[in-house]
Design goal:
Blueprint lengths: L3 E3 L6 E3 L12 H12 L30
Length: 69
């Protein structure tokens, strides 16, 4: 039994099997459009902004220059 899913980009029915090398997308074009959305921050995962106090210290303390060894 072959499963068909809606392409996340265009909504066309797409075969979800090893035969479709772009699954779950219907084509390479739709896959690249989706990749571009992620690369350009078109998609965002909801959540709270990180608390700056929870950030680990950087390689140099503020006010102290870094020196190459």
């Amino acid at each position: 039994m072959t499963a068909f899913v809606d392409c996340p980009t265009c909504g066309r029915k797409s075969e979800f099997s090893p035969v479709n090398r772009w699954r779950p997308f219907c084509s390479e074009r739709c896959k690249l459009i989706d990749l571009g959305q992620w690369a350009n921050d078109g998609y965002k995962i909801p959540g709270d902004a990180p608390d700056p106090e929870d950030e680990p210290p950087g390689p140099a303390s503020p006010g102290r220059p870094q020196h190459d060894a």
